[in-house]
Design goal:
Number of strands: 19
CATH class of the largest domain: Alpha Beta
Order of helices and strands: EEEHEEEEEEEEHHEHEHEHEHEHEHEHE
Number of domains: 2
Strand content: 25-35%
Structural class: alpha/beta
Oligomer: single chain
Bound molecules: zinc ion
CATH topology of the largest domain: Quinone Oxidoreductase, Chain A, domain 1
Largest sheet: 7 strands, mixed
Length: 336
């Protein structure tokens, strides 16, 4: 007899059905996780139009999740049933040159959980259970709730950018963009002891940013004796956001581009050279989960207030609100 479970199934563009589907069986190197919280990512919302080819229905979405281990695959030894965990949204091979050099975000065989494209199809965590590779698991410290645990995935994206940029305690950073990744980058920069300004256009996220201790980018000249920011994080990635980053960064400073709304932009080569500005790029995350979990557990990072929770059964309505840009809803977490 096949065990069944409830799942939010993406069945057609802008259509979700909450229904029974077969419960996955963990492969020998996998564990079955009973999902306790799964956040909706902006990429899920965009993907639900069916236009970008990354969410081909039928599919269970969801790559930002946490839960408890319900069953171990035969070869799994270092985990136990009942362990509270989150997991990397990226499955990677673990043995290629990139994987063995701390860059599993660049693994040619990377597969993202909850994505279905022409190359692969992997059901995600908007369900009661999900089977994930044991090597992608991270234990949740007791002080970290399941909701905060599921948000470690986007937090790790911000942390990856901050650690790559070499931002030091006492430095001044500016974040452009008030979406989830912008806010997570802000939290990551603050957790490293930096002073952070933010630039954004949305009322509620900007209120959250202020509560998190972010200043307005208009204050940057006073804060830095007119020099400009040591590091600017562009969490938008458009011509205008990059131009703004060039205005905010100090000579000899650094711009870290995380967003990629535009495929290509004009690049001020001459000014970057004569002002010796480093321009760097950051993609996804590469194992920053423990750093993030520790920052939350120690109170150096606070994700409280960033999300609103809803029952998984109401997932279709929640997606609808996000697709129609309901301003009162920033980040939604679904609870199975
Ligand atoms: Zn995501
Ligand atoms: Zn690899």
């Amino acid at each position: 007899m096949v065990n069944m479970m409830k799942a939010l199934v993406f069945t057609a563009p802008h259509t979700f059905e909450y229904r029974d589907v077969p419960r996955p069986e963990p492969a020998p190197d996998e564990v079955l996780v009973e999902v306790k919280a799964c956040a909706i990512c902006g990429s899920d919302v965009h993907g639900s139009s069916g236009e970008n080819g990354r969410r081909i229905p039928p599919l269970v979405m969801g790559h930002e999740a946490s839960g408890t281990i319900a069953q171990l695959g035969e070869a799994v030894q270092s985990w136990a049933v009942g362990d509270r965990v989150t997991f990397d949204s990226t499955e990677y091979c673990g043995y290629c040159w990139f994987c063995t050099h701390g860059m599993h975000n660049l693994c040619a065989q990377r597969r993202i959980v909850g994505v279905a494209c022409t190359e692969y199809r992997k059901n995600g965590a908007m369900a009661q259970y999900i089977a994930v590779k044991a090597r992608t698991l991270y234990a949740l410290p007791p002080a970290v709730s399941f909701e905060q645990g599921c948000l470690v995935e986007p937090f790790a994206v911000g942390m990856h950018a901050v650690l790559r940029s070499g931002l030091a305690a006492g430095q001044t950073a500016a974040v452009i963009g008030d979406g989830t990744i912008g806010l997570m980058t802000l939290i990551a920069a603050k957790s490293q002891g930096a002073q952070v300004c933010i630039s954004g256009h949305h009322t509620r996220p900007m209120q959250l940013a202020a509560q998190l201790g972010a200043l307005d980018c208009a204050q940057l000249p006073q804060l830095t004796a007119e020099r400009g920011a040591d590091v600017v994080y562009d969490a938008v990635g458009s011509q205008s956001s990059f131009t703004q980053a060039m205005e905010l960064v100090r000579k000899g400073g650094r711009i870290m581009v995380i967003g990629n709304h535009a495929r290509t932009i004009d690049f001020p080569l001459q000014r970057c050279i004569t002002e010796q500005i480093d321009v760097q790029f950051s993609y996804s995350s590469a194992g920053e989960y423990p750093v993030c979990l520790q920052a939350i557990a120690e109170g150096r990072a606070d994700l409280t207030g960033l999300w609103q929770s809803f029952p998984l059964a109401e997932g279709a309505q929640v997606f609808d609100r996000l697709v129609h840009r309901d301003e009162s809803l920033t980040k939604a977490v679904l609870i199975p």
